[in-house]
Design brief:
This protein has 235 residues and is an all-alpha fold. It has one domain. The chain is built from eight helices and no strands. The longest helix has 47 residues. The N and C termini lie far apart (69 Å).
Length: 235
């Protein structure tokens, strides 16, 4: 007899979270790094505190819209390709069901089943949900990894805003003479937390994830600050 614990058992894998996780991490990291680089470059050029703050807010708004639009177009293209593949597969199942059965059987044989068992599995799955079986086992399309354009767009834009609020907030509340120092400190702490959190959720080494995100963010800020200092203009 199966225990109640076994009946309730549900495994959660990182791969099921990769769609929204990728968009969220990309958005937050881009928001923090790009707006931090922007305000540091502007601050280094010697303009007023108000100008630095306005530049940060403008970068936040423009960046969030750009992230949403870019992510939507990208993921929508993937969704269109998935729908086209499913439509083509549905036509093949309607016109050549025997060939599709042979194809599915071959897939299960390649995965280690013997000829008879592979044929039985293929027949039963096609009798239950032929298109679903081919979508999953031939095309590699599953519900958890399905392209969701609006979800990706909102996740990217929202996380960009959250990330960008860090440097914008640092500029808003920092002393006029310490804008760069406060912005850099707040950004580095945020990048460490962001990298560690993303690595933990994705099942990767936490320290490596934190260092990777922080290194590239620090490099981007240093380059932006250097350009602003060198040319004395807003970048």
């Amino acid at each position: 007899m199966r225990s109640h614990h076994a009946d309730r058992h549900l495994e959660r894998h990182a791969s099921g979270r990769m769609g929204w996780l990728r968009a969220s991490v990309l958005g937050a990291n881009d928001g923090t790094v790009s707006v931090s680089g922007l305000v540091l470059g502007v601050a280094a050029s010697g303009v007023s505190h108000g100008s630095v703050l306005i530049s940060g807010v403008a970068g936040l708004v423009a960046g969030a819209m750009s992230m949403a639009a870019g992510e939507y177009v990208s993921v929508q293209s993937q969704a269109d390709a998935e729908r086209a593949d499913l439509a083509r597969e549905a036509i093949e199942l309607r016109d050549e069901p025997e060939s599709e059965l042979v194809e599915l059987t071959g897939i299960y044989r390649a995965r280690g089943l013997d000829e008879n068992l592979a044929g039985q599995v293929a027949k039963q799955l096609m009798a239950h949900d032929a298109l679903g079986a081919h979508a999953r086992d031939e095309l590699g399309l599953t519900e958890s990894l399905r392209a969701r354009p609006f979800q990706a767009a909102f996740a990217s834009a929202g996380s960009f805003v959250v990330g960008a609020l860090v440097p914008v907030g640092a500029v808003a509340f920092a002393p006029v003479t310490r804008i760069s120092e406060v912005a850099v400190g707040a950004t580095l702490v945020t990048l460490v937390i962001l990298g560690a959190t993303a690595a933990r959720v994705g099942g990767a080494p936490v320290l490596r994830g934190a260092l990777r995100v922080t290194f590239w963010g620090a490099l981007a800020m240093a380059m932006s600050f250097g350009i602003g200092k060198l040319f004395g203009v807003m970048v």
